[in-house]
Amino acid sequence: MKKLFLFALVGILLASCSEKSELQKIEEKFDEGLAMEENQERNEMKQSSPDSVLRHAVYFSFKEGTAPEKITEIVDAFRDLQNKIPGIEHFEWGENSSPEGLNRGLTHAFTLTFYSDKARDEYLPHPDHKAFGALLTPHLYEVMVVDYWTRE
Q1: Quick one: pLDDT at residue 104?
Q2: Which CATH number applies to 54-149: 1.10.340.30, 3.30.1300.10, 3.30.565.10, 3.30.70.100?
Q3: Residue range 112-129: average pLDDT?
Q4: Quick one: how far is CA 129 from the chain centroid?
Q5: Which residue in 110, 108, 96, 116 sits closest to 56, CA to CA?
Q6: Where are the domains of the chain?
Q7: Does 40 have pLDDT greater than 80?
Q8: What whole-number distance in Å separates Cα of residue 90 and Cα of residue 82?
């Protein structure tokens, strides 16, 4: 009888150990839910980013004698337009570092990304863009602008 009782007890213990605890089941469901949410967020981001974007590439050189502090102020003002004008999806900039010598004196490059012609067309006459132009113009030596739709 004792052997039967011990055998039954061991069987019950083994059976309970082989089944997942309720806590483990809840943790697995939670992890599955998180994974589904992350996939959904990635899919939404892909859907909101178009296959092709409009790049507004702007190149400057500053008049000789323009103070570095003034150039910093101008760059900061240009960067801040993304916070003031709807439709600017991305902004980046940098200074020329090409060893080729083909920059024609242009020293600063800026790229604004738009998702539509309409967004770019609303940016151009925007009062904040005009105010930036008023800040820039007295110090601007040369400017070149190229807009293009990206392709792969």
Answers
A1: 96
A2: 3.30.70.100
A3: 98
A4: 22
A5: 110
A6: 20-49, 54-149
A7: no
A8: 7
